[in-house]
Every structure is written in C-alpha cells, then in structure tokens.
Amino acid sequence: MFVAAGQFAVSPVWEKNADTCVALMSQAAENGVSLLVLPEALLARDDSDPDLSVKSAQYVEGDFLKQLLRESASNRMTTILTLHVPSSPGRATNTLVALRGGKVVASYAKLHLYDAFSIQESRNVDAGDTIAPLLDVEGLKVGLMTCYDLRFPELSMALALQGAEVLALPAAWVRGALKEHHWSTLLAARALDTTCYMIAAGECGNKNIGQSRIIDPFGVTIAAAADVPALVMAEISAERIRQVRAQLPVLRNRRFVPPQLS
C-alpha cells in the first residue's frame, strides 16, 4: 500500500492550518495513499509565544477537527496527526488522533513529554499513561507514537511485540546542535530495533527541522523531505516485513521483554 508523510510550517491561525491539512489530505488521497501522517501540534504555533499551542487547544469535537473529518469522510484513507486538547484550565494533553471515514478511530495522549534541551513541555501539558492499541490499516498493524517518544526504545519495542508492523510518528523536532543527526539516527534505530516501517512527519519552519521520512524495516530511508513544506510518498508491503524479519529475527531472538507501559 502507499503511505505518505506531510510537513508544513504551522501558523498562529488554526483556520489556515486546517486548510493546509485538508489540502495535504486531498493530495494524498488523489495519489492513492492509504495512510497519511501529519506533524505534531497542528492547531497553532508562534515562535514568539511558545504557549500558543496550549492556549489554542480545542476539544476533539471542535471546529478544527470538524474540517478534517469532513475531508476524511470523502475517502478511505487513514490520517494521523496530533493537536492539543484541553485537560484543565491552562493545561492540555498532546493528543494523537487517527481519522478514517469521517470518524476518529483511535487516539493517544503523548507519554513522554519534552522536558529536555531547556524546554519543559510538562509545564502546561499533561502526560498520557497508556500506550495506544494497534490500528489496522489495510491489514497492516500500525503503532502510534509522538515526537519525543522516539527517544524511548521501550515504547516502540512494546508496540512491535504486540504485533506492530508500521510505526507512525507525528513530530515537531526542534532545531539545535546535532538535533538533525539525532532525528535521522533514532528513526533508523527504531526501525531496526523493531523491524517495522517508520513513517515520521516533522513540522517545518523557523523552529523545527521538518525532514519527514519513510524508513523500511532494514533502516533504509525510502522517501524523505528537506526543511520546506512537502508531501513524500512510498509503497510499503507486508512481504518486505516478512523478508526482513526472516533475515533479522530480532523480535523472536529477544530474551528480555520490556515492562508493560499501560
């Protein structure tokens, strides 16, 4: 099946961002994509106000997702993204949602908050405490993760041991010394750790690196974007997963199983 990762620079205006998401969804669907991953925290972003994403939080039933759900109803594609959802006054959860057929078919509250590199996401965001159930997309099992989760191999491994064959990762990876190197290295490592495809969509702009990637179970990048708005697509297959896992049976060879995160 065909999969895609879409990236753009999130603006301070949620209506504009919704239009951009709808346009990417339409373009992907027209190209026969079955699974589209969009970046993290799509509602609003402003380099001069790091709290805008939380200040602009909307409920899942809000107008932002209503627009995307209308577009989702027009095709059979599964679209994955994250937005901030209010949890209490002045606070929110960084919530991944999967859209299909005009409905939210899965959700996941980000487990690992980005309290690193002089940023403290937990200052106004509440962490989740449960890994998401696997999502079936045309017979392939998809595990759901968000951005900083990438640095914690036990999460991707837990998903793979539950049967994941594809890992979907919306992200807003912040620029910085060696950060691009960390991004590319960790994406390849998580694909190799789990022998899963990795579909990672990164927000681009002044603050974040973009660099969306689709990586195969051998850690090979098969589609990639730079640091400007883009939609990258690739074909993935269950047969390729079987081939890699026959040659590199790391899931079967494991002697230590990570503790359950739920």
TrEMBL record:
Family statement drawn from the similarity comment of this UniProt entry: Belongs to the carbon-nitrogen hydrolase superfamily. NIT1/NIT2 family.
Entry's Gene Ontology molecular function annotations: hydrolase activity
Pfam families tied to this protein: CN_hydrolase
Key word Hydrolase present: yes
Superkingdom of the source species: Bacteria
Occurrences of domain CN hydrolase (ranges): 1-238
Keywords from the named record: Hydrolase
InterPro entries named in the record: C-N_Hydrolase (IPR003010), C-N_Hydrolase_sf (IPR036526), De_GSH_amidase (IPR047999), UPF0012_CS (IPR001110)
Name of the protein in its database record: Hydrolase
